[in-house]
Amino acid sequence: MSIKICCICEFENAKYKCPKCKKFYCSVACCSKHKENCTGSIESNNCDIENSDSTEKTNVPYSFPTEDTVPIEKLEQLRYSKDLKNYLKTSQVRDIITEVLKDNNPTKAIANAMTEPLFVELADACLKVVEPSEEERPC
Asked: How many CB atoms lie within 10 A of CB 27?
């Protein structure tokens, strides 16, 4: 099994491949950066974008990963969601998040937060980014 390295951020488990040039990329952000320079040629080295703070690979292992653990690379994609940013502009959402963070029982706090329709919309916006359906994938 070969290692598929993202041509943008050099993440070693890239899951997506450009249909034009067949180079691998790992995320929506890397796909967008790749598309800006893709010439469609398999031979050309068209992915020479230097790493920036927003695309650097993060090697923060989870202490207790579960089957529901979302990879760090997918979580990093949240920063590019306009919908998510709009929800975070709402003081009600920020207050709910603050209460969840302060609570000694985070499971209970999240359950309470999920009774608020606006927080449910925020959670759905997050899921849309980290687990997009086939139709919603940009590349």
From this structure: 23
